[in-house]
Design a protein that fits this description.
By secondary structure, the chain is an alpha+beta fold. The chain has ten helices and 23 strands. The protein has helices spanning about 5, 140-150, 155-160, 190, 210-220, 255-260, 270-275, 295-300, 320-325, 330, and strands at about 10-15, 20-30, 35-40, 60-70, 70-90, 95-100, 115, 120-125, 135-140, 160, 165-170, 175-185, 200-205, 205, 225-235, 235-245, 245, 265-270, 285-290, 305-310, 315, 340-345, 345-355. The strands form five sheets. The protein has a six-stranded antiparallel beta barrel. Strands 11, 12, 13, 14, 15 and 16 form a six-stranded antiparallel β-sheet that branches. The chain is globular and about 60 Å long. The mean pLDDT is about 85.
Amino acid sequence: TNFHVVDGVERIHVTLEDRRTTMARLIERDPTTDLAVIKIDMPDPLPVIPTGTSADLMCGETVIAIGNAYGYEFTVTRGIVSALHRTVQVSDEQQYRDLIQTDASINPGNSGGPLLNIDGEMIGINVAVRVGAQGIGFAIPIDEALDVAARLIEAERLEGIAHGISGRTVREGIEAKFVVTDVREGSPAVQHGVQAGDVVKSVAGTPVHTALEFERAMLSRKAGEELEIVVERGSSKLTSSLALESMPVAERTVTDRAWEMLGLRLVPLPTRSIRQVSTRYQGGLRVVAVRNRSVAEEQGIRPGDILVGIHKWETVKMDDVAYILETPELTRADEQPVRFFILRGSDTLYGHFRVASQRR
């Protein structure tokens, strides 16, 4: 979906086509591209929309937009591709590049919905950037959206596992393949013979064609788990068993460690934003996601809350969090829970969590 659709919301409710409703979790988001990844957990498999490519789009071809225009759910509109590679400046902070322009009606409420080609394949993600515009709608090309999504759900960063493979999606017409561009020195991939230039065909029996499919295959894996990986090298197919390891702490960013140890995804908050809420604090960090089954979730911390302090320190910037997470008195296994402070609306709330208990 779009970043602006989920930015600052406390709860995300998803309604399925059969009218079932469920809660969704924000996995990660990227304000620059206005994209976000959310996840729902259902007891039964759900149908998945077929994905096309935006690489072969032509002006004049038919497209279909689906969304909840002005709150009217399951709205379908039809149009054509009016132009490609549009740049749209929305504000001083937000600029969209390389958009698909269409005359299919895309209104507030359509954002995050699919733009389909005549075969019913998703070729874009709708974004309402011109409120009140007549006959002008825009969508983010699906090829770009899938590449961004792959980066947002990168398993080495989100899960703290290490495999050592970096790669990218290479598209040739409507065909795509995931090509290894680099193999980190000393990583499991090196130990098991994976090389730059290899084409990954499958991971643990799951076919892989794109970077997104590769990262999805790596999600929810644990250190010590062995995965069968099939790669194509020249005219040969090679199969090996890749043993995952834990990512060295030194290679994890403070954002990753906060996610692992606190169960919180945090972003800096402009001083002017917190001044609108409270003049008591010098700054804070906005909670954009809370990890499922983490102590932060158990304590009721929600996306949209502002973390302003842990123990005896303010959390004005991410460097403050880095210092706190490296403080021995907080991270010892036998340490007592520490107090945290958050802003929710105009209220200051507090609770307690044990930092060390969040280590995996």
